[in-house]
Amino acid sequence: IYIYTHTHTHSITYREKQAQRDFVLEENMEVHGTIGDKKKVMVAIDVSEYSHYALEWTLQNLRDSIANSSDLVIFTAQPLADYGYVYASSFGATPPDLIRSIQGNHMKVALAVLEKAKEICSKHGIVAETITEVGDPKDAICEAVEKLHIQLLVLGSHGRGTLKRAFLGSVSNYCANNAKCPVLIVKKPI
Questions:
Q1: pTM for the whole thing?
Q2: pLDDT confidence of residue 148
Q3: Looking at residue 11, what DSSP letter applies?
């Protein structure tokens, strides 16, 4: 059994402790030959400071495990465009060029987010695979976890209160309940 001492300025949640413990136990089993393949850790990010904090936290706290026995995947979802407003504003005929332009902008943002994440990983000496998919972020993340055989999913928490979360939904809450692997939700200190 490994014991982690947490010296950062924010408190570590029970879920974070549990995910770290499970990850280290799996690493120990791999060293002793009970798991054959490298583990895959996926950090799902977006343009928010919260997701970049989760990536930094992962690189600082799980760096040795990732560097020695895991592959790191950085994932971002390109949101489905809501073409309803485009359709309405163009009086019923949405120009195909406008749709391609919106999709192109979403792709540019996603690629910029992934490039920034690769630079952050590089500063920590980690090479990461980057992936982007089009879709509702919570569904796209859970589908990627399954498709890529991810063993640990790391997400940032936007820190919304209960009321906002009830109205707006929560990607991290959805993934914690639906992803087919352990989920580590990293909350940025206030």
A1: 0.72
A2: 94
A3: P
